């Protein structure tokens, strides 16, 4: 059992509420849910849609095929009816002009009869629930949560039942098999990871698609005692986070590409003052404003080289909701251990896609601060940039009696004082870069899926993990000996598995969500391995599993 | 080195105002008797921003224009720290202009000392936001075309609760102002006039000396109109002193939880404490 319901219309037509309600009802009914959204950078009008896929087994991608379309206008039908399965169902109000295979319903008429045209979508929801034979108790529970006002709730319940009365359960589904999964998107998962890791300071400037992190952090600010601040610009954001981190709290900021661009000078500052910080870049297609509400993996090279000058940093691409949680928490430990900036690379697709996942295991998170003991330093003996074998200097926080904690963006000596001598410069550069050796030991190998004796190796990174996993399953099911590598840790670069598998296969194909194959370039640079083919998508819409399969077959033929 | 000890050498020119300001900072900190480990000086980049190099204390020397954001982050993370942001006019009013406006609006509990010599020193004599219109510099060879920025007037109209003007040549007054600024609960701006002996041949020590005039000790510091007039006064007489001082709710105390007895930095957080947040996703 595996169905996809498509809900489309203009911004402001209540799509969001309807999609949210349906996704939650499905989640609570025990189905695996995967809800993707496609919205324009506007508050009213345009063509927006949600695609809710639900199944009785774990799912990891959106699909091209649709089993049900709920259209709020004619344009939605025109654009998407081709994707409807042969026996699929297209629904719209009777005022929407007909297309082939459309079932027109008196949604508006019923809503008007009930005295409030705004319950329109609840009529539609009732119809859809009935078609699939879904649990109305769950729906009631959900509507109660959405409509706090008792009268509105009652009215919507009436609408729901009237919608249901219009049809039969033509495609009844068995009850779901998933138990107690959460439904969460990548931004919220990353935020939870940060909070679990003890992040006490999060600031940022609103920028789609990163803003929901800021919104969520603010919502829990009082409860968790986290300072959350919308600040004047992204330049301030990273400088503030560094100030907070210098003072000793775990600090994070986030933005999308444009805002991340404004943080570059402070990234470099983090490098030389050796102050830990976590920054998340939730990518959207650039250059500049680009496609504000769509997705791309176009910032990889930019992030790798973030900040002027040479200093160690780590770059981790988040692959799915679970990864977003655990890796964000891990990022704080690595930042603290090496006193470096760690950049998390996400994207709009991961940020906004709502997926059912097993609840995160908070007991797996540890908080490792790697702070030095102030008692160990007699008055005036502490040196913030003490030269060590690992390159990591003991870190004290301001407040240590008898010792000053001095950080300086100028090249400095061990104490933190300006020192422009050639010897000192070499010593401090070497010290900082030596941290890269330890960091390289932290790198986790890429995820692997698929055939044990592969002939074809697929390589991707970040949020393509889910679509790639399903593509791989489909290709394996079709008898193709395909294996996939999905990179999470991007920098430092992990080469071993790539080299081993590359030596085994006949062909290597890289799949990316950008126009220039940035990861493939990195692979050539770091592992001296060139892809035989590159599958690149840069229209702002995420690769779906079936699209990867189709594109691959085309290049193989 | 003992707390707040000054280095013997500095990279400042003989006759510069910076050493005098440094001496005032040192004396103010001594007289306030603040435990040295609980004070942090935050600077940007420029001649003024070299101060932390020459005084023994906790310090964060960050980026040009960005001393205020770093200072704010430090204060929010540890409200027990006394945080002094200090840098030059180019740094704070030029490159960091947006942060200046926001810091005033936030009214966060920090002191802000701006060395205002009306010129860029470290980069060798270009106009700063406070350079007079028409003044000739290496880059503005035909004279500065833009109108000068009025930091104190700007602070007052934006709602600052503590606005003062000092002069590097009036040590006693400067120490008094600095102490009041550090003790003020909120954002305290002190614009400190100082000569640049190499790059500003107009606003010399004598030029300031002739014009600065301390305000009457008993003037009403809650009179905004008076303060605004004094802030704008820039001619034969330039009034100095605490122009304006009123109480206002601070940004930090509005968070509620961060001004308690335990600063944020000292609070442990176990990962499991965040687990109840999962309830939102069932």
Task: Write a compact overview of the structure shown.
Chain A is an alpha/beta fold. Helices cover 38% and strands 22% of the residues of chain A. Chain B has a single domain (18-281), classed as Thiamin diphosphate (ThDP)-binding fold, Pyr/PP domains (Rossmann fold), CATH 3.40.50.970.
3D structure, described in words:
The complex is a heterodimer of chains A (557) and B (282). By secondary structure, chain A is α/β, with parallel strands linked by helices. Chain A folds into three domains: 163 residues, Pyruvate-ferredoxin Oxidoreductase, domain 3, CATH 3.40.920.10; 182 residues, Thiamin diphosphate (ThDP)-binding fold, Pyr/PP domains (Rossmann fold); 110 residues, 3-Layer(aba) Sandwich (Rossmann fold), CATH 3.40.50.920. Chain A is 38% helix and 22% strand. Chain A is globular, with a radius of gyration of 26 Å. An eight-stranded mixed β-sheet of chain B has the order 2-1-3-4-6-5-8-7, sandwiched between helices. The mean pLDDT of chain B is 95. Chain B is globular. Chain B has one domain: Rossmann fold. The relative contact order of chain B is 0.14. By secondary structure, chain B is α/β, with parallel strands linked by helices. Chains A and B meet through strand 7, helix 7, strand 8, helix 8 and helix 9 of A and strand 2, helix 2 and helix 4 of B. Strand 15 of chain A pairs parallel with strand 2 of chain B, so a sheet runs across the interface.
């Amino acid at each position: 059992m595996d169905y996809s319901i498509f809900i489309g219309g203009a911004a402001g037509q209540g799509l969001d509420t309807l999609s949210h309600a349906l996704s939650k009802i499905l989640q609570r009914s025990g189905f695996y849910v995967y809800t993707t959204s496609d919205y324009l950078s506007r508050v009213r009008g345009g063509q927006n849609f949600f695609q809710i896929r639900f199944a009785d087994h774990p799912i990891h991608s959106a699909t091209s095929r649709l089993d049900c379309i709920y259209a709020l206008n004619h344009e939605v039908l025109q654009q998407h009816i081709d994707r409807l399965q042969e026996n699929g169902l297209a629904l719209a109000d009777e005022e929407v002009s007909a297309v082939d295979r459309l079932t027109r319903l008196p949604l508006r008429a019923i809503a008007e009869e009930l005295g409030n045209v705004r319950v329109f979508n609840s009529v539609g929801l009732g119809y859809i629930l009935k078609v699939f034979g879904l649990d109305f108790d769950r729906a009631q529970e959900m509507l109660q949560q959405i409509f706090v006002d008792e009268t509105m709730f009652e009215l919507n319940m009436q609408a729901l039942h009237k919608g249901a009365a219009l049809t039969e359960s033509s495609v009844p589904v068995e009850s779901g098999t998933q138990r107690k999964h959460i439904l969460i998107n990548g931004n919220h998962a990353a935020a939870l990871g940060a909070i679990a890791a003890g992040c006490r300071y999060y600031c940022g400037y609103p920028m789609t698609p990163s803003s929901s992190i800021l919104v969520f952090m603010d919502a829990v600010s009082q409860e968790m005692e986290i300072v959350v601040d919308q600040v004047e610009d992204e330049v301030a954001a990273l400088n503030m986070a560094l100030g907070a981190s210098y003072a000793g709290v775990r600090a994070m900021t986030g933005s999308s590409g444009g805002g991340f661009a404004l943080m570059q000078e402070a990234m470099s500052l983090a490098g030389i003052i050796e102050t830990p910080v976590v920054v998340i870049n939730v990518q959207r297609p650039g250059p500049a404003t680009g496609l504000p509400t769509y997705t791309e993996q176009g910032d990889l090279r930019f992030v790798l080289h973030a900040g002027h000058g040479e200093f160690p940093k780590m770059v981790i691409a988040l692959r799915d909701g679970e990864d977003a949680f655990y890796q964000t928490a891990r990022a704080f430990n690595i930042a603290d251990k090496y006193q470096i900036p760690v950049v998390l690379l996400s994207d709009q697709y991961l940020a906004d896609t709502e997926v059912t996942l097993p609840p995160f295991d908070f007991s797996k998170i540890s908080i490792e601060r790697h702070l030095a003991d102030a008692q160990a330093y007699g008055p005036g003996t502490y040196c913030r940039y003490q030269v060590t074998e690992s390159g990591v200097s003991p870190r004290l926080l301001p407040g240590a009696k008898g010792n000053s904690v001095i950080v300086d963006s100028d090249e400095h000596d061990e104490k933190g004082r300006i020192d422009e001598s050639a010897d000192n410069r070499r010593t401090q550069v070497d010290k900082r870069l030596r941290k890269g050796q330890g960091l390289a030991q932290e790198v986790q190998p890429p995820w692997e899926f698929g055939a044990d004796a592969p002939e074809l190796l697929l390589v991707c990174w970040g949020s393509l993990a889910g679509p790639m996993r399903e593509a791989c399953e489909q290709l394996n099911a079709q008898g193709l000996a395909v294996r996939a590598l999905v990179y999470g840790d991007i920098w430092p670069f992990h080469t071993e598995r790539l080299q081993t598998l590359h030596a085994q296969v006949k062909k290597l194909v890289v799949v990316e969500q950008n126009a220039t194959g940035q990861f493939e370039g990195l692979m050539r640079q770091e592992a001296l391995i060139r892809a035989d083919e590159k599958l690149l998508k840069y229209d702002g819409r995420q690769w779906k599993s079936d699209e990867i399969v189709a594109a691959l077959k085309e290049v193989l033929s | 080195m003992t707390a707040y000890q000054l280095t013997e050498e500095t990279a400042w020119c003989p006759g510069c105002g910076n050493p005098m300001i440094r001496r005032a900072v040192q004396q103010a900190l001594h007289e306030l008797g603040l435990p040295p480990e609980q004070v942090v000086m935050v600077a940007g980049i420029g001649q003024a921003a070299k101060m932390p190099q020459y005084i023994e204390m906790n310090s964060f020397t960050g980026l040009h224009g960005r001393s205020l954001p770093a200072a704010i982050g430090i204060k929010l993370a540890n409200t027990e720290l006394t945080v002094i942001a200090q840098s030059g006019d180019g740094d704070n009013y030029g490159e960091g202009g947006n942060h200046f406006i926001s810091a005033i609006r936030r009214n966060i509990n920090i002191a802000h000392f701006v060395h205002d010599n009306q010129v860029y020193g470290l980069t060798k004599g270009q106009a700063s936001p406070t350079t007079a219109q028409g003044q000739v510099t290496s880059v503005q060879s035909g004279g500065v075309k833009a109108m000068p920025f009025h930091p104190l007037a700007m602070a007052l109209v934006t709602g600052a609760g503590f606005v003062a003007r000092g002069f590097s040549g009036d040590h006693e007054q400067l120490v008094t102002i600095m102490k009041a600024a550090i003790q003020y609960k909120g954002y305290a701006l002190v614009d400190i006039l100082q000569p640049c002996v190499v790059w500003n041949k107009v606003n010399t020590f004598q030029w300031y000396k002739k014009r600065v005039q301390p305000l009457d000790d008993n003037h009403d510091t809650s009179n905004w109109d008076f303060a605004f007039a004094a802030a704008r006064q820039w001619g034969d007489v330039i009034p100095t002193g605490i122009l304006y001082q009123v109480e206002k709710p601070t940004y930090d105390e509005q968070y509620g939880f961060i001004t308690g007895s335990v600063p944020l930095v000292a609070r442990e957080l176990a990962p499991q404490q965040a687990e109840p947040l999962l309830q939102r996703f069932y």
